[in-house]
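Anyone else keep sequences and structure tokens together like this?

Example one:
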Amino acid sequence: QVQLVESGGGLGQPGGSLRLSCAASGVTRIAFFLATMGWYRQAPGRQRELVATVNNGGSTNYLDSVKGRFTISRDSAKNTVYLQMNNLRPEDTAVYYCNARSSANNNYWGQGTQVTVSS
């Protein structure tokens, strides 16, 4: 059974940084390598939105409001995907979810990690 476990959330200050990690288990390294990995977020009263994705070729895609501030990366040797968040803003406050979309288009979600940006 595929499991995604996020970590690294918490309280960040405006202009500060946080790094989220998402470790995948129950999946082979090949399956992880072939999957498109992503981060989504959902703020209170708002729909879940795509923040960033990285595919098996290393191509990335970002939400416009995080471009230049957030960086998604993956370590296939560790079955882990990261989201480096710099220059945080209060509007980045949300629950962040890790997503994996397999080569067969099956979707898997983590349980979410809270990120709060406040001084």
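And example two:
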Amino acid sequence: QVQLVESGGGLVQTGGTLILSCAASGSIISINEMGWYRQPPGKQRELVAAITSGGSTSYATSVKGRSTISRDNAKKMVYLQMNSLKPEDTAVYYCNLRGWSVTGGFNNWGKGTLVTVSS
């Protein structure tokens, strides 16, 4: 079974920087797309950034230019660095991985890590 664990959330001041990490474990054969999503209080979950197995990245308009997603395939990890944080970045951040395990395809989510940006 594939499990994901996020870390790096916390309280940060406006204008600050945060680096989120997500570690995958389990009988993983390959990981295709890795992504970060967030769910602000009272709102729906939304895509923040994604990175393909080939390294192509995409970002939500709201974070483009101040965020970087990266992955370490050997360590089965994905990272999200966010700079110039704003109060509207406050949300629970989730990582999502899609790939193949010994039991078949998977599309798994972590439990989330809370990011709070103080004004």
